[in-house]
Description:
The structure holds 2 protein chains of 2 kinds. Chain A is 38% helix and 14% strand. By secondary structure, chain A is α+β, with helices and mostly antiparallel strands. Chain A folds into 2 domains: 2-71, Ubiquitin-like (UB roll) (Roll); 79-151, Orthogonal Bundle (DNA polymerase, domain 1), CATH 1.10.150. In chain A, helix 2 (79-90) crosses helix 3 (100-113), helix 2 packs across helix 5 and helix 3 crosses helix 4 (119-126). The model of chain A has no long low-confidence stretch (mean pLDDT 97). By secondary structure, chain B is of the alpha+beta class. Chain B has 3 domains: 8-211, Aldehyde oxidase/xanthine dehydrogenase, molybdopterin binding domain (Aldehyde Oxidoreductase, domain 4, 2-Layer Sandwich); 222-290 and 350-430, Aldehyde Oxidoreductase, domain 4, CATH 3.30.365.10; 297-342 and 442-703, Aldehyde oxidase/xanthine dehydrogenase, molybdopterin binding domain (Aldehyde Oxidoreductase, domain 4, 2-Layer Sandwich). In chain B, 28% of the residues lie in helices and 22% in strands. Chain B has a 7-stranded mixed beta sheet, with helices on both faces. Chain B has a 5-stranded mixed beta sheet with strand order 13-21-20-19-14, with helices on both faces. Chain B has a 4-stranded mixed beta sheet with strand order 1-2-3-4. In chain B, helix 2 runs parallel beside helix 3 (120-147) and helix 3 packs across helix 4 (173-180). The longest helix of chain B is centred in the first third of the chain and has 28 residues, at 120-147. Chain B is globular and about 85 Å long. Chain B starts with 7 loop residues before the first helix and ends in a 15-residue tail after the last helix. Residues 1-35 of chain B have low confidence and may be disordered.
Amino acid sequence: xxxxxxxxxxxxxxxxxxxxxxxxxxxxxxxxxxxxxxxxxxxxxxxxxxxxxxxxxxxxxxxxxxxxxxxxxxxxxxxxxxxxxxxxxxxxxxxxxxxxxxxxxxxxxxxxxxxxxxxxxxxxxxxxxxxxxxxxxxxxxxxxxxxxxxxx
Amino acid sequence: xxxxxxxxxxxxxxxxxxxxxxxxxxxxxxxxxxxxxxxxxxxxxxxxxxxxxxxxxxxxxxxxxxxxxxxxxxxxxxxxxxxxxxxxxxxxxxxxxxxxxxxxxxxxxxxxxxxxxxxxxxxxxxxxxxxxxxxxxxxxxxxxxxxxxxxxxxxxxxxxxxxxxxxxxxxxxxxxxxxxxxxxxxxxxxxxxxxxxxxxxxxxxxxxxxxxxxxxxxxxxxxxxxxxxxxxxxxxxxxxxxxxxxxxxxxxxxxxxxxxxxxxxxxxxxxxxxxxxxxxxxxxxxxxxxxxxxxxxxxxxxxxxxxxxxxxxxxxxxxxxxxxxxxxxxxxxxxxxxxxxxxxxxxxxxxxxxxxxxxxxxxxxxxxxxxxxxxxxxxxxxxxxxxxxxxxxxxxxxxxxxxxxxxxxxxxxxxxxxxxxxxxxxxxxxxxxxxxxxxxxxxxxxxxxxxxxxxxxxxxxxxxxxxxxxxxxxxxxxxxxxxxxxxxxxxxxxxxxxxxxxxxxxxxxxxxxxxxxxxxxxxxxxxxxxxxxxxxxxxxxxxxxxxxxxxxxxxxxxxxxxxxxxxxxxxxxxxxxxxxxxxxxxxxxxxxxxxxxxxxxxxxxxxxxxxxxxxxxxxxxxxxxxxxxxxxxxxxxxxxxxxxxxxxxxxxxxxxxxxxxxxxxxxxxxxxxxxxxxxxxxxxxxxxxxxxxxxxxxxxxxxxxxxxxxxxxxxxxx
Lengths: 152, 718
């Protein structure tokens, strides 16, 4: 039995402890905002926050999150999350939208650590998140916009 | 945690309204409703004014999109067209996918329901203007009857219906039921485009909010009580079939429910995704390679090249090409281009959910690009009449052509997986990324052999192009999609010949974002650039001089040159390249600024882009499609190839060796839209074709080395 905190609530999982966190979130917790894209930590669609930092849930065995705090796109809040969502909506970042949960989780984490990121900071923090629609141009802009609103 | 699925029979009735509204208003939801699939056609409780428009008591106007929304913006674009003629306010507009119907919801460019060829706006423009104007007339007729005033005195503005004389006023909702019973006008009056209030505005997209908080529902997100999760073990060679299976180890894995051989491979059913994947990994399968493609990509290239010079299909032949090459003082240039197989690799791999209702009918939920085809094929495989299958098109995590397939082979597989069960449990079938990269239906490999002739005056007088590769349309005769962009070369060259050879392979081909232009655009635009360089002509001026019959090519080319200040000093260590390609009725010119990166690979800094797509319905969406098309094109040209290794085994498997462009590789992009009164044309694909050749042309100027073989960067070892 694995116990962890998920979006502020205590949860347990008693299935195969090797099950990647991604599938526990999606198949058992029905939190489907976190996406499958590659299964090998190459695309970032499955990004969640684990004890405050980004984690690719597709390669994270659920056994390793015992006692940890997991935040998903459904549960992320705070000023960075609010600023990121507003900025994303203001310039219509998403196209197909499938990767955007992961993009937003990475962007929120970046702003939590670096409130005023440079383009290089953004490239460094976001390079693990693939967007096949290539919305990168607007992701970069939206992160700058979010940083500006947090400052103001 | 409990999850109560709505019973299938009630699902389509109940789930619509909440989801439709939730989709755009998007409250933060943890509840089960967010995981339901979205039934096609929207809420049945709304008043249906016509095939494309439903109006709710809350004044919302729901547009039924016959086209799938997978990021290219039809929900927003089609709703804009309706709202314009309806005189609705943008805030009341919603969009959902229409039901599958090859007649009522046919793509007027195809004759069956389908999304592709960048046709969504182009084929819907007049149809939805008429639908909107008809609905407006019916609302006015309803108001006239309700208020006993002449219809001619009623006005509609921003969603409010008014009669000035009596002071009566209403929203759409209160009159919707009555409007639905009015006789539609035979020829509704359309607006003069100069009076457009919404078309041409940068309206916020309807599908953005739900895509920022995890509430947007994709096929992979659908769950139902007791659902089975299924994956299929596929061969690693094209054309291979199952010889024998040892599933003993797989069956011992907790959560694995069953294992069945199906025509496409071996299906593993489980209680959750991980158990299904683990079960698949534990299978020991012997494959029969007797009918498989066992040649490597290198061997295929050599075999393709041998066909050049043999008799092919003549796609163009004007003037006297042979004579042009043997004229006095003629200089010639020859080149051979090799294009690899390309996987589409949409972020959401192929998937589908099948749920059987109590009456034996079946709901299919999938990212249906050809919904009517998917419906027919699913019914056939399941042994049902087509009217017993409902295809509910879901938002899809990209496609780029992957989900538009004649004969719907993916749905045939998913249906076969479902048909092999007793059908009593709902089933989700998914492909992994490995299945996707290795699943075929690629942009085919092509070899182009080019010859150009330049006369003593420095004029390009001869163009001789041979294209060898698979026919995407499966034709034995000339396939226009193999030669589009080449056989109708925009440049005025007096002696032009384009020959096409079809080859037959066990690797299934498919269109890939911009179809034939993916390779013809590259070959034509890099080769003309080389010819111009050979005679010392400027790439922009030289092209303009050859585009005497093409004002819209000329317009975009001049615009992009102005944007980039073409001819001005370029930063140290960088070069610029230009390309202009018309595809799907839309003209796009691009200039790329490139340097040699630290790793020796091209570094694309900036791309300027001018697009002429006729009337710009939503400039914001058009710009987004150009930005995304450029990124998709840059990624493919730099990194992407699916290769067959020795013995024909597929080499690549996932994003580590089938590279996608990443944010640190994305150039800055600037887009300008040419003002136009021409009928609108598509934007989903046309941003792609010029990106590659613009980069390659800059690259050739940087290091004097023309790009003949793609991708430009060798990813991993082959």
